[in-house]
Amino acid sequence: MTLTNEQVEHVALLARLGLSDEERERMREQLSSILDHIDQLRAADTSNVAPTAQVIPLAPALRDDVVAPSLTVEQVLANAPRTEGGFIKVRAILD
User: Fold this and answer.
1) What's this model's pTM, rounded to 2 decimal places?
2) What pLDDT, in 10s, does the model give residues 52-71?
3) Is residue 32 part of a domain?
4) Using one digit for the tens of pLDDT, what is the confidence trace for 15-35?
5) Whose CA is closest to 4, among 27, 23, 22?
6) Other C-beta atoms lying within 10 Å of the C-beta of residue 20
7) 80 within domain boundaries
8) What is the DSSP letter of 73?
9) How far is CA 46 from the centre of its chain?
10) Residue 20 in contact with residue 27, Cβ under 8 Å?
């Protein structure tokens, strides 16, 4: 599917992008190529594939919780510009 310059201009307008003539032509070619690839994917027969099928088994991406030493309050507060009562003090952002 080949996009027209008008279609690229419309997409650029929606995205609030100002494109030069050279950029518009490059985007037209690249977006047309992407749409061609999508058309190829649409042509694949997926009627026998369950919507939640995975090609590889899923494993949790979480690691085990391991207790490790952490910084003391004094170490944390040592680099803070302002502290008060064992806490980092910041400027108020709301009235």
Assistant:
1) 0.50
2) 767 788 888 888 889 999 99
3) yes
4) 999 999 999 999 999 999 999
5) 27
6) 8
7) no
8) H
9) 27
10) no
